[in-house]
Amino acid sequence: MAQLSPVLTQATPVQVARGEGVYLYDTEGRRHLDFTAGIGVVSTGHCHPKVVAAAQEQVATLIHGQYTTVMHQPLLRLAERLGEVLPPSLDSVFFLNSGSEAVEAAVRLARHATQRPLVLAFDGGFHGRTMGAAALTTSGAKIRSGNNPMMGGTVFAPFPYAYRYGWTEEQAVEFALKELDRQLVSTAPAADVAAFVIEPVLGEGGYVPTPPAFLRGLRERADRHGVLLVADEVQTGYGRTGTFWGHQHAEGLTPDILITAKGLASGFPLSGIAASTELMSKARPGSQGGTYGGNAVACAAALATLDVVQEEGLVDNARVNGARLLDGVASVSKGVGTVGDVRGLGFMVAVEFTNPDGTPDPTTAVQAHKAAADHGLLLLTCGPYNNCVRFIPPLITTAEQVDEGVALWSKALSDATA
Ligand code: PMP
Questions:
Q1: Model confidence over 270-299: pLDDT tens digits?
Q2: Are residues 141 and 263 in the same domain?
Q3: Which of 339, 346, 318 is nearest to 414 (CA)?
Q4: Ligand 1 centre from 100 Cα, in Å?
Q5: Helix (H) or strand (E) holding 339
Q6: CA of 417 to the centre of ligand 1 (A)
Q7: Mean pLDDT of the chain, nearest integer
Q8: Is residue 353 situated within a structural domain?
Q9: Do 76 and 168 fall within a single domain?
Q10: Which domain-ending residue is among 311, 341, 363?
Q11: What is the pLDDT of residues 212-242, one digit of tens each?
């Protein structure tokens, strides 16, 4: 009998048997409030009836169309439907399986299109675990450690993480943009930079919303230097932050390449890249794609997901109930133990733990996370020091379920800080 490799870690001991809406049920029949949503994946909740029906129908019709050999309808329909939610200038899309794969594809597209070698990412960013995506990832040591040398041509600039610097957001933005400008004439000469790759909310790196002023600063520099602005919306897309895409919090701003995955297909493996047709035309034909990309069942699930997101007003729900979650978590957390900061955008909310001497406190974060699981509330940790606990409920989460989660969190926090 083969054992599961110890290289995989598991945040909780839960052995899950089935999921329904915002709840998971374990093999002993115990109910868990799932405020992880499978790391922000089950946007429509577990096993939404419309997603289930669409997938079941597709399984019985065509499972694998293989788009580099033949084309299939669910993929074409999904490309068409995405046009309703994508910025109009990003009118060309293709599909892959995972966020990491899509990040790698975006980097290759940017390099082909610009004929430039360097990719600039930001400290604390998470872009995936495959070699190229891992090379852009600095959200924690475990992805990079023991894995050097990573893919060449990656450069990092500071992210305006105001809380950890002990600055105001304005000060952090000013510092990060100045530092970026310095790098564009030193470590990463602007004429050699193909792309800036940024998450609209720093995800695994601590749930720090990217200040709109910083995104605008990047857009302005990208335009000035002919650099492509790549929005990694793997975690922030599909309504998660209370706008359809996270970058829309910087009103009027459009990235050159948008990467989507996770919430796109409610749990089926699917990711996508969007850019203008003009930009996509600069890629080498046949240089992108893959055996399983744009799987027919995943595309059918994505179409149903989009229907549900639109019909059930899930973007608005993430905004309204996300604010309720932030308020609720803040009101029961602030001033308790080593809680230093509570922040969030839509249904991405985090509590950061900091020792009295200002150093990160991962011990309490991990204890609070574990205590929450003991109370039947599933959460995740994050942050470069693993000193944040994050809440990412499915987008269908109601006000009552938010309150249920806040009440459980309050108990967990008092257990962890007793
Ligand atoms: N980019 C971001 C912003 C992510 O949050 C993640 C996953 N946490 C990825 C890329 C990688 O996605 P995947 O795990 O599907 O490869």
A1: 999 999 999 999 998 999 999 999 999 999
A2: yes
A3: 339
A4: 6
A5: strand 339-345
A6: 31
A7: 97
A8: yes
A9: yes
A10: 311
A11: 999 999 999 999 999 999 999 999 999 999 9
Per-residue pLDDT at 183 exceeds 90: yes
Q: How far is the CA of 205 from the centre of ligand 1 (A)?
A: 12
For residue 151, tell me if it sits in a domain: yes
Per-residue confidence at 393, pLDDT binned at 50, 70, 90?
Answer: very high
The strand pair at 154-157 and 193-198 is best described as: unpaired
pTM of the model: 0.98
In a domain, 266, yes or no: yes
Asked whether residue 305 falls in the same domain as residue 382, the answer is no
Hey, which of 42, 201, 235, 271 would you mutate to test ligand 1's pocket, going by the most ligand atoms within 8 Å of its Cβ? 235
What range does the domain containing 393 cover?
A: 16-34+313-417
Pocket of ligand 1 (CB under 6 A): 39, 98-100, 103, 126-128, 199, 203-204, 232, 234-235, 261
- The residue among 301 and 1 whose pLDDT is bigger is 301
Question: Which atom of ligand 1 is closest in space to residue 98's alpha carbon?
Answer: 15
Tens-place pLDDT, residues 138-165: 998 888 889 999 999 999 999 999 999 9
The torsion of the CA quartet 345, 349, 355, 359, rounded to 10 degrees, works out to: -60
Helix (H, G, I), strand (E, B) or coil at 19: strand
Q: Is residue 62 part of a domain?
A: yes
Query: Strand order in 23-26's β-sheet?
Result: 16-20, 23-26, 31-34, 377-378
**Is residue 351 domain-shared with residue 264, that is, in the same domain?**
no
Identify the domain boundary among 295, 311, 327: 311
Count CA atoms closer than 13 A to 379's CA, side-chain side.
Answer: 32
- DSSP for 121-182, written as a single string: EETT----SSHHHHHT--SSHHHHTT--S--SSEEEE----HHHHT--HHHHHHHHHHHHHH
Q: Which protein residue's CA is at the shortest distance from atom 12 of ligand 1? A: 99
- CA 127 to ligand 1 centroid distance, Å: 5
